[in-house]
Every structure is written in C-alpha cells, then in structure tokens.
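Handout, tutorial session.
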Amino acid sequence: MVLVADLTVFRYHNGPFDPQNWAVPLQAVGWLEHPHQFATGNVGTAVISKLKAMVEQTRSTYPQNNFRGVKSCSLCIAANLPDPGPIWSQENIFVPGVGVVYVSPGGIPHYVETHLYLPPVDFLEAVSKCPNCGSNEYRKALRSANRGNEPPLEVFKPYVFTGSKNRGRKG
C-alpha cells in the first residue's frame, strides 16, 4: 500500500482513482503506513460497523475497482501484534461527502478498530450518512457530491453466456 496524507488529492490509478474524472476533489483518507504518524482517538462502534459494511458492499458491487494482491498491516508488524491476515488493501471505498468524494483503503476498519486511527471529522460524518454502497441511493449520493455529474464508478455486471451450448460444434 501507499502512504497518502489525509485529505490530500488522491492520485493512484486511472478510472475512478484519477481525480480528473471527478468534478470535485477526490481526497484520500486512511492510507496509513508504518512509521508515519496519524491522528488517534476513539470512533464509535457504529462507524466501525458501517465501514466494515461499506467494504463488503463495495466488494460485491464494484469488484473491478480492486487491485491485485493483499497486504499485511505494517502497523501490526511494527507493534509485534498478531498478523490480522490480509487487511483488504486491494479494495477501496468511495464515500460521498459535501463537495468532495473520499477514497479509503478497505483496511480502514482495521486501522480504526485496532490502531485507534481517527479519521477526519468530515469523513466520519460522511460515512455515517452514506447509503448502502450497492444501492441506487449511493449512486445518487455520489452524483450529488460530484456536482450532479455521473461518478466514474461502473457497477459490476457479471458475464452471462446467452449463446447455444453447441455453438461451433458439428455433430
């Protein structure tokens, strides 16, 4: 994973990860890496549960926006904590805010829960108001946050073979 300071413009990849594809700032939140410092504090269990749900919802609705590979938590390794397993750094959540869209790694619930990472207040408010990431309301919230423009996130549509089973066979 890459260290990106909170609330900086997120530049990571093309498509939805390219800030030029958004009409509003695409801001990073929760891109942590040892040994860099970060704000700490307590976040309510409701927000942690919501972040976990958002990662799961995004996993099923936008899997094409994931990256290959998983990452161990460098904060756990540095603190000699047990390996939590992959922290889903390849998955990313997009959170509609007010005149901004936040992007966070899928490991953000782990950082908040285990390492007491305290994300910015505006981000926490946006998370608490965010609709289910697989819903039409989420798309509307992203569009609203993006000044009415369609967000550059495409909903995953699995391939369905509609041809004949015997196509190309003789016989």
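The second record follows below. Compare its token runs with those of the first.
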Amino acid sequence: MERHGLADADAAQKIQHFATRLIRLARTTNKEHALSSAQYSAMALLAAHPGIAVVDLARREGVAHPTMSRLVAGLEKAGLVIRAKNAQDSRSSLLTLTDTGERTYQDVAARRVMLFRMLLSQLSPNAVQEILDIVDRDMIGIEQALRADPPQDM
C-alpha cells in the first residue's frame, strides 16, 4: 500500500530517522544539566505526579523496578529528587522533585517546547492539527500495545 507516493517501509524508515534526529536535538536542549532522556522523562512524571512510588514510576515509564531505582539514585545524587518513606507501605518510597529538580525540569521543558514550536512553525496549520489528532487518538494505545507485546521481527 502506498501513501503520498512513498511505500510504507520507506515512510517508516524516514520517520524513524527523523524521530532519532529529533530526540538528539531535544537532548541538546539539556546539555548544561547533563540529563539523559530517561532522566528527563522520569522528572516529567515526577513533576506531574509528586509523591509517586518508585514502582509506579517504573510502571508508567515501562521499565523494570531495578532500572528505575538506579535512575532515581542518579537523580538523588544530583540533588534533583528526594525519596521519602511511604507511611502506608514501608517497603516503598515516594519520590518528589527537589526545588533544584523542579527548576531544572522547568528549564529543560521550556527549551524542549521552544524546539518543538520552531519545528511546528514550519508546518501548515492543517499538518499540525493532523499530528495533534494522531497524538490524541493513537499514541497512548500504541505505547501500551508495544509494552504489552513488543514487535518480534525487529
């Protein structure tokens, strides 16, 4: 099946390459803070859900608990996250961004939004709306499906 004159495989390859480059560009917006993409993503969830348990953060990020524990330990060491005992479950800890973590997250998020504004400004309003429709309609379902059943032919 062809869309817009490109075979689906060619389109997928071009979009994958674009996404890789876009991620690289987004990472350049936080070099002064030395955050990895995974750290930034976790901080975004912590900003939206202060006091979240490590296990819940791992689940939302689609990673194993030990992986998230190591990531959080790095954020703690950098003074960006504080871990507190969970009064309702002594086996788990609750995470919150420190004031420095909140400022760092807000700074990096603002820079990333600026990058995407620049990108979107190159597109027609209809193209921007199509992208937003896809994000609103499909991304959460795609993400959940891939986590539940990762493609085997990669």
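Points raised in discussion: The first helix runs from residue 8 to 28.
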